[in-house]
Amino acid sequence: MIVSWMWIAIVGLVVERIATKKISSRNERWLLEKGGRSSIEKHYRGLLIVQYISYSAILFELVFLRQSTVTFNMFFFVCCVIILSGKWWCIRSAGMFWNAKKITLPRVRLFKQGPYKYVKQPEYVITLLEIAFISFLFGAYITACVFPFLYMIYFKSIQSGAQKVYTNA
């Protein structure tokens, strides 16, 4: 059963997704105009599909598998806010170079600022955590346990292609 706080959270997540998509599209156009290239476009779609199927699984679990109302959990909410703040830290740190499809410019060195100073590909870690904690927030415990592993397995299977993008930059 979907209750009022869930609708607010869903709207917030949708707005956040639209904002990141607009930024990514703008940066993608800019990078391509400057000669950028991506060798993992098809892999990006697969990761996106796993992510969106996980959101569908959350709704399915809420509507068809939950017998009781899910109460608001402040701990999971704060975790989600911290995780989404991490995504925006990535976007801010990378500036015009941030995009969801991992488009790079030839002869431009990798930057080592913000979260990129600590993790080579922080967006993937953040997305994995996002899938888990958004699921926990909505009380979709099966989704929270299954889909991060599916995302991680798919990511590991394409990681060699992603590494080429980062090492050839």
TrEMBL record:
It is found in: Membrane. The chain crosses the membrane at residues 44-65, 72-89, 131-154. One of its GO terms (cellular component) is membrane. It is a multi-pass membrane protein. It comes from the Bacteria. Keywords: Membrane, Transmembrane, Transmembrane helix. GO terms for molecular function: protein C-terminal S-isoprenylcysteine carboxyl O-methyltransferase activity. InterPro entries: ICMT_MeTrfase. Pfam families: ICMT (PF04140). This is Isoprenylcysteine carboxyl methyltransferase. It comes from Oceanobacillus picturae. The lineage of its organism: Bacteria, Bacillati, Bacillota, Bacilli, Bacillales.
